Amino acid sequence: MFNCENLDGIHYFYAHIYDVKSEASYVDDCTFKIQTSIFTNVAARFLDPYPFEYHPSNIQPRSYTFTVPTGYSTVGALLTNEIYGGGVSYRNQTASLTIDTNPTFTYYDNSFQIDPCLAEGDTTTGTKLYFGDIQTFKSIEILVASNNCDTSGFKIDSTTAVVSFEGDVDHCVDVNGVTLGFVDTLKSLQGAVLHNIRPNDKVSFTPSFDVQSNRICFIFSIENPFVTFGVDTFSTFAPNYFVVIPDTTTINWLSNWTYHSNNGISYPINNQFFLSDTLLAINETHIGDSICASFSYCPDSASQTIKFYTGWSCSDSLLQPFDTTALCQFDTITYIIELESSNIGLSDGGVRNRPLSEVYYTLCDTLFYECCFKSTQNGEVTLNNIELPNFPDSLGVLDVSIRKGYCDSNSTEPWHSVLYDSLQNNWPISALDMDAIGYADSVLKITEGISVRIAYMPDCHFEDTLPDVVLNANSYCNDPLSSTYDFNNTLKRDTTTSACHDCFTLKKTASDSIIAALDTISFTIKICATNQDSGFVYLYEYLPANFVNLDSIPFFVITPAMGCTTLVVNGYFTQSGDCNSNENLVQIKFAGFDSLNVYFGPDSLMDSVCVLVTNACIDPNTIVLKDSSYSVAFRQCIAILLFYVEGLFTVNSNLTLNNCDVFMAAGAQIIIASNIMFSLDSATSIIGCDTMWQGILMEQGAELEVLNGSNINDANRAIQIDNECELYLYNAHFYNNIIGVYSEPNNGDTYGFGAFSITGTTFSSIGNFLPDYNGQPAHGGKPYAGIDLSDVVVSIGKIGGNTNHFLNMNFGIKVFRSNIEVVNNDFQNIFTVSGYPTKVIGTAVMCEGDTTLGLSGIPGSLTVFPVNTNSNTMLNCERGVYASYSDLVVSNCIINNVNTGVECTQSRLKRNVLITENTITARKYGIRLYDNAGAANMSAIFNSITIHGNTTNGATIGTAISVMEKNNISQTNYNISFNAPITIIDAHAGIELSSVFKPQVRCNNVLQK
Predict the structure, then answer these.
(1) pLDDT per residue over 911-969, tens digit each?
(2) Beta bridge partners of 669
(3) Whole-number mean pLDDT of the chain?
(4) Greatest CA separation found in the chain?
């Protein structure tokens, strides 16, 4: 008994017992657990012999100090508390303590506050602690792990694994401040082995098997039975049990690996490792575990070896790539697998594949067709889609269905429709579709199959051919497979009836494919129907602008239900053209229903026909020369043939045409290559077909003959010559050419012709020109000139030969910078033509020098002699002869009924002009000479001139000989003599001179009537 301060009464002493002890240590996946406890109680333990006496509280351990053995690390600590106070037990659940990584560490315990009367001071934390008055139990578990997973065993001696308990407790709050402390040390028997890791695991598996499905599974069992290996040594659990699958560099044709066990499905760690459990306990067995994978594709060889590693690891952190040196234990599992083949084909059941409908079908009525497929080898098949290749536009698909089994063995199985994929243009077969027809695993095994039924809708224009049916699939290892049912049945349409309401055909034909303009042609319009009842259609006829219709066209047509209505339209084309430009189009629109074609047609139908409309120049015997043709394809001499030149024709080999007709397309051209001869003989014609053409272009050194009635017509420049060319025109004709013979200005360099001979040739216009070709230069309504030459020295015509004729044009002969002799040529109706430059137009013969090149320029030279007979040289012309800056001789010509007979100007720099012995009848001037200062000689002698003048606005005009200069300073050497008679009728003057220096005017006979 003792007396507590400030407390009255008698107190009894009692026994105080404490005990510190160690429980068994054991292994937990390379981790060692040391469980140590302390417990204190009074002598009576749980029975209180002094219920009315004061009991001091039990001793409370405050802290635990632990020293970690060398080679180990702390991985966890657990604390459990239990006290008894006043007959009531208070137990704290096991709590984890914060891990301390130091070699020696201390845990402090302040976890209980039970009875407020028994408050004690905590010298460490400053809080109050409360303890049981009957019993206190404390337990701590320290978990340490081997740093290198040493399996040799863990031994405790006096220098390792020390656990100390310390406490200081005041028995009463104010009792003398007494502190009771103690230290006790846990020890183990020296050299005792507490654990040894040695599992007895093993794996059972089937080393060889066949594979025929996409998902391959490797089945095995794992066992760890209990067994005693020796003294203090027995089998233990296997921690971190693993299976290692092949990496992708070894087996890349498998993917999507999974592990299946009683614990469910798991997935690989780091793409290669599976953990079966955190540990495989003693006497634990996993039966029927499996690892599965999917085929990405099939390897080349049908026999494959696959190797796995299995075992247990000291850690659940496995390394990638697989490293056996980091493992506690591993074994090898080797599987040999044989891959089965897969394929699909047509089924063999019953009547094989066949249409379910009758051979006869009706338009716009449903046509069912069925065919069947099956898996023909052991490997499973996954169906992908159904295709209908080369599907005609005239056929609709109402439905595509599948069902389980073969065509004649599954009549009770229901049909299941599959949906159309418009992007892929096929009918996909999904896993849901397969499940719907009774294949829950979504694949076909050997001898399993499906039927395919297609509901077609034959359109108005269906032609008795169905597309093939293709079933596409994949083998279990994703290789593509396909099987095709080739349609080879005979389908026949029932032509006596139709289920359609709006099926029509429209056809337009022409009586001729080639026809000449203005000839009558017939177009036939045929409207046919295949319907249940008669139809009412609108009719629209679209005709080319150059077609004249001779018949009326009805606005609508009533067709029979099954039959045709025919209309005929007659007319003619006003001008030629190719097929495309003469398209003749017809359109019908249906008035009774929505469209003219059941599913795919528009609400109108159109048809057209076109014909080649030709000029009379083309007939079936015409040889058509395509653009860029060459003469080398022909023999040298060709007679009595008809040609049509579509574009450019090059004469690149010597060629003679006798009595041939050559028609030229719009803008066509003939080129004679250098040093090549082209001859037109015996009335050969080269003319425009229905439009103008460019003409014949002679390259340097080329030769052209136009002989014996041959003609060149309707060209822009009938002949264009070049240097060193040879030109022979004998008794030829040039009609309606803008220019007959032409040479371009040559910068003052004179062309050197090998030959230039023109006799008995006519240059003229008859009627109007043909229409222009595209790009043709602008021109007037009559030819510009028969001959237009620059930089030449030639003679046109021949004394004693046939006369050349120039008729109905703007210029007869026009030369520039040239020396020319005009002999035996006559000119009629040479007048001013609008549409050409206005300078001295309307002149029979015109010669100009060039005053633009240097001070003196290049003069011209013109000599004009009469025709062989005593006939007019110029008749009914605006002007007979015109010369500018040229030497001029006009002698013995008859110039009749002209405005001006001979006109000469700018004959300076010693030019010589002689106008003599001519007979002239004119209205304005017989001879007109002006602005010729500096000429060497200007003579008008021995001419007979008659002037028929007139009075205009009160002024009388008409002068036989007019000589005028700007001033009388420069000497011109005019000689106006022996002209007789000069007859003036209602005219202004016989001879008139103005500002002329010392002219000679003598012996002229002027009569006025």
Answers:
(1) 999 999 999 999 999 999 999 988 999 999 999 999 998 877 778 899 999 999 988 77
(2) 648, 695
(3) 79
(4) 199
pLDDT category of residue 640 using cuts at 50, 70 and 90: very high
For residue 981, whether the previous peptide bond is cis, meaning omega lies within 30 degrees of 0, is: yes
Token representation of residue 261: 């066990």
- SS3 for 714? coil
Only one residue has tokens 């654990």, namely 195
Strand partners, 742: 720, 788
Residue owning tokens 């507590």: 4
* Count of C-beta atoms within a 10 Å radius of residue 637: 12
Which stretch, 173-187, 461-475, 549-563, 632-646, has highest mean pLDDT?
A: 632-646
pLDDT at site 962: 95
CB 518 within 8 A of CB 572: yes
Print the SS3 string covering 774-799: CCCCCCCCCCCEEEEEECCEEEECCC
For residue 923, give the H/E element and its range: strand 919-930
Token pair belonging to 887: 């030497």
- The residues that bridge with 860 in the sheet, in sequence order, are 886
Contacts of 201 (CB under 8 A, 6+ apart): 222, 223, 224, 238, 241, 280, 311, 312, 329
Taking CA atoms, 330 is separated from 145, 261, 324, 326, in Å, by 21, 20, 7, 10
pLDDT exceeds 60 at position 2 = no
**Residue 213, C-beta contacts closer than 8 angstroms, at least 6 positions apart:** 379, 380, 443, 476
Q: Which residue has the higher pLDDT, 354 or 446?
A: 446
C-alpha angle 742/746/749, rounded to 5°? 125
Q: Report how far residue 659's alpha carbon sits from residue 898's, in angstroms, rounded to the nearest whole number.
A: 39
pLDDT single digits (tens) 890-920: 999 999 999 999 999 998 888 999 999 999 9
Decide if 820 contacts 790 (C-beta within 8 A): no
Contacts of 733 (CB under 8 A, 6+ apart): 709, 710, 711, 712, 713, 761, 762, 764
Reduced to 3 states, what is the DSSP secondary structure of residue 431?
helix
Round to whole Å and give the CA distance between 96 and 991: 150
C-alpha span between 315 and 695 (Å, rounded): 103
DSSP state of 436: H
- Could you tell me which of 447, 456, 384, 450 has the C-alpha nearest to residue 413? 450
| Coil/strand/helix, residue 596 | coil
Contact 311, 237 (CB under 8 A): no
Q: Do 713 and 685 contact (CB within 8 A), yes or no?
A: yes
Which residues touch 233 (CB under 8 Å, ≥6 apart)?
Answer: 196, 198
What tokens were used for 722? 């070049």
Amino acid at 498: S
According to DSSP, the β-strands at 894-905 and 874-884 are parallel
- Cis omega (within 30 of 0) for bond into 392: no
pLDDT of residue 129: 37
How far is the C-alpha of 153 from the C-alpha of 147, rounded, in Å?
13
Q: What is the DSSP letter of 901?
A: E
Token pair in block for residue 83: 């006290």
* Beta carbons within 10 angstroms of residue 271's beta carbon: 12
337-382 confidence digits (pLDDT tens): 888 888 988 875 433 445 544 557 888 888 888 888 889 899 899 9
Alpha carbon distance 140, 97 (integer Å): 10
CA 762 remoteness from chain centre: 62
Burial (CB < 10 A; 0-12, 13-18, 19+), residue 414, is: exposed
Q: Look up residue 686 and give its two tokens.
A: 């080269």
pLDDT at position 167 = 42
CA dist 715 to 258, 771, 816, Å?
91, 11, 22
Q: Report the distance separating Cα 809 and Cα 797, nearest Å.
A: 19
pTM of the entire predicted model: 0.48
CA distances from 81 to 90, 163, 180, 586 (A): 8, 17, 21, 107
CB of 788 closer than 8 Å to CB of 806? no
